[in-house]
Design brief:
The protein is an alpha+beta fold. The chain has a single domain, classed as Alpha-Beta Plaits. Helices cover about 30% and strands about 25% of the residues. The protein has three helices and four strands. The chain has a four-stranded antiparallel sheet, covered by helices on one side. The longest helix has 15 residues. It is globular and about 45 Å long.
Amino acid sequence: MLIVSYDFEDNKPRARFARFLEKYGTRIQYSVWQVRDSERVLQNILTEVELKYKKEFTGADSVYIFRMCESCKKKIKRYGYAKHEESDLICIS
């Protein structure tokens, strides 16, 4: 799993980056995404940041990408609404 966190001062690149990340993962907080961990996905995200966003960064903009190993994922603690993501949910209609 990859965790991608970002903060853009301007709304336009912030919204554009969120739409980009929708292709790869799920929003877990307003500017924090859980993304599939694969080399291809990671390279796509890094390339997008390098080519489209880095040159527009202001002093207040940032992107963090964390790669979570299997043992690290087991150490995650979730509270509130996020607690529901710890267990599988089956819906039968």
